[in-house]
Amino acid sequence: MADSRLPLSRVHHVALITADYPRARRFYLEVMDAEILNEAYREERDSHKLDLRLPGGIQLELFSFPSPPSRPSYPEACGLRHLALATSDLDACVSLLEARGATPEPIRVDEYTGARFTFLADPDGTPIELYEVAD
Asked: What is the pTM of this model?
């Protein structure tokens, strides 16, 4: 076996579950500038599935299910910690998000890389990190 590494190329999508489909749908479309790729209601599961594309080509699947359990976030829980999105202009992102009613945390500096970043949460409390990178 000459090459023993998995032939992976990128993240295909991130899947999220929401407790309030209309609220989460509005957040990702109006606040996070997502575009709809596909939207379906699965009557047998009483579940919506919304495929979205964020700026930069990042793909999200947004699901709704009746009465999903809350996501443990604080204190930090095992499993997926947050969704991190890269930006070349963190200040512009923060300004736009605040104008749209979102409340990003104060900008911080990564003590290891020196990069600036902030967090905000979607309507279900999923942490979203905005991480400033050079073009």
From this structure: 0.87
